[in-house]
Amino acid sequence: MMRSLYAGISGLQNHQLRMDVIGNNIANVNTVGFKSSRVTFKELFNQTLRGAAAPAGPTRGGTNPIQIGLGTALAGIDVIHQPGNPQVTGVATDLAIQGDGFFVLQDAAGGYAYTRAGDFRLDAAGYLVNADGLRVLGWQAQGGVLPARDAVNLGPIRVPVDMFVPAQASSRVTWSSNLDATTPTNTPLTRAVDVYDSLGNAHTLIFTFTRTGSNQWSWQAEDAANPGTSLGQGTLTFGNSGLLTAGNTGTVSFTPTGAATINLQVDFSGLTQYAAPSTLEGTADGYPAGELTSFAIDTSGTITGTFSNGTTQPIAQVALASFANPAGLLRDGNLYWESNNSGVARIGVAGTGGRGALTPGALEMSNVDLSREFVDMIVTQRGFQANSRVITTSDEMLQELVNLKR
């Protein structure tokens, strides 16, 4: 009878632990990135009343052991790392992981912490941080170029609001579309193209195209601010098919005040000559200096900035970590740490190496299934009641035993 009392006590204790876990799951049903837990039991151990016996001779069979269990014990509390559903928020810095993987954070001691909660924001210094101010780690671009995405180059991600890109001087002008083959000779056709110097100042070049004869055109470039001075000229020759056969390229050179000399390679290979309206179009590379106006994060975690001059370039890339055994991680709130049984963090780019892709502008919700939790709560409650009944019944039996002396 004492065995049944202690077995009932162990049942009460462990069902109470299970109810604690269920309560924690339900409490965190709306916690971003929360992973539910489950409790498993095992039999405490067995007392052997009689061992097993082998068959003895041709007429006597063997006997099985007689054992009695002494209650239940906690086998484990496992974290269920099944992804939760993403909820769209529209916030640029919110990220949800679709699949396996964890965001990498820098803890107060300079070590690595991991989380599934992607409710990030920018602090006053431009660093991407979580709700507790821990910095999100990844790879910072230099001059629009990302470094090798490995653990060596890992560092805090920063999106400075005062970021700008320097001016890029123009080096090439490209012409495309058609010159009208029926244009009268010596009738000029002009088009303007904007180019930029090394300081980012814009200069308008006027290109003049003049039909000089059958299948032949001349071109000349001038600075709109200084007309009458040729900066470059040449001849275009077209074949009977209307395609350019000679004069595919040219050069234009001039020195703006206070800036470096601009040497332009002019590409005419995209021109044709047909009996159709002239639709000349010239484009130049280069751009002025630009300030950061906005940024966006894609599914690989690359943060791309858009600048006031119309250019875009990578600013940084968010890193993800994966583990051989995520259930072996140590958990503290929304953060996880490596343990002896989790395996070493494998840090890399989202969507590679078993790491999930990112959903920008969304958050991963809790994976708690309320219907399952309520069913488990009922089962746990009944288990607790049944074990309490074992204790009260055993107590009544002991009371009857004590009353035998009367």
From TrEMBL:
Keywords: Bacterial flagellum, Cell projection, Cilium, Flagellum
Domain named Flagellar basal-body/hook protein C-terminal: residues: 360-404
Stored SUPFAM superfamilies: Flagellar hook protein flgE
Domain Flagellar hook protein FlgE D2, residue spans: 178-287
Pfam families: Flg_bb_rod, Flg_bbr_C, FlgE_D2, LlgE_F_G_D1
Annotated Flagellar basal body rod protein N-terminal domain residues: 5-35
Record InterPro entries: Falgellar_hook_FlgE_sf (IPR037058), Flag_bb_rod_N (IPR001444), Flagellar_basal_body_rod_CS (IPR019776), Flagellar_FlgE/F/G (IPR020013), Flg_bb/hook_C_dom (IPR010930), FlgE/F/G-like (IPR037925), FlgE_D2 (IPR011491), LlgE_F_G-like_D1 (IPR053967)
Classification via PANTHER family: FLAGELLAR HOOK PROTEIN FLGE, FLAGELLAR PROTEIN
Family to which the UniProt record says this protein belongs: Belongs to the flagella basal body rod proteins family.
Function comment: A flexible structure which links the flagellar filament to the drive apparatus in the basal body.
NCBIfam families: FlgEFG_subfam
Name recorded for this polypeptide: Flagellar hook protein FlgE
Taxonomy of the source species: Bacteria, Bacillati, Bacillota, Clostridia, Eubacteriales
